[in-house]
Design goal:
Largest sheet: 4 strands, antiparallel
Mean pLDDT: 84
Shape: elongated
């Protein structure tokens, strides 16, 4: 805890020298209250907060319609952890240890951009997901997906019409845990088709022979 107090003090002093007015709170509930009540230009949020973790704070801020830019600070460097932070509504993600110069530069960029309201759901055609709650639907029918199936569907929904190679999918969903000869991608695309395509008479998950897969764009969406 002493390290966190020291880091908060250093960051406060550095940001004040950059010309920012800075409020510091020590736990999750206080962070949520302060960022709900005050119109901050940006929020620097540690993932590991007592009382309520930073991911929960960020998610609740977005649920309450608070769209100021948020930078998450964490000691966790895994891709899955970064994805969790972004899914919670964070705009940027900085892994400890980091340089104050980098934090200040990222903060300046986010403050210039300002708060941008973003949809809580991602939708392509009648397929949609809510990354915050890990729910998926085809039309009004909710689909039960495993965590990996959900992550794979989210990747396709974020890149409709684009061909995603097997190696790219491995890198983003399995975090280099499998070598290039693994057929885990093909297996999970097959699992996903059985849940989001076949029961509905659809064939939106397309195979691009020798390359990878893509999610078909609806014909009403310009290409």
């Amino acid at each position: 805890m002493e390290d966190e107090v020291r880091m908060a003090s250093v960051l406060r002093r550095g940001l004040e020298e950059e010309g920012y007015a800075v409020d510091v709170v020590a736990d999750g509930p206080s962070a949520l209250w302060a960022a709900t009540e005050q119109d901050y230009a940006a929020v620097v949020l540690d993932v590991m907060l007592p009382g309520m973790d930073g991911l929960s704070v960020c998610r609740q801020l977005r649920d309450r319609g608070r769209w100021m830019p948020v930078i998450m600070l964490t000691a966790r460097a895994q891709v899955t952890d970064r994805v969790s932070g972004l899914d919670a509504g964070a705009d940027d993600y900085l892994v400890k240890p980091f340089s104050f110069t980098e934090l200040a530069a990222r903060l300046r960029a986010l403050v210039r951009r300002g708060g941008v309201e973003r949809p809580t759901e991602i939708q392509v055609g009648d397929l949609r997901i809510d990354p915050g709650t890990h729910q998926a639907w085809r039309g009004e029918v909710e689909i039960e997906l495993s965590p990996k199936e959900f992550a794979l569907l989210e990747l396709f929904l974020r890149h409709p019409g684009q061909v995603l190679t097997r190696s790219r999918i491995l890198d983003q969903i399995w975090d280099f845990a499998y070598d290039g000869t693994s057929n885990v991608v093909d297996q999970y695309v097959s699992y996903l088709r059985r849940k989001v395509d076949q029961p509905f008479g659809c064939a939106d998950l397309q195979t691009v022979r020798g390359v990878g897969y893509r999610l078909r764009r609806p014909s009403s969406v310009p290409t």
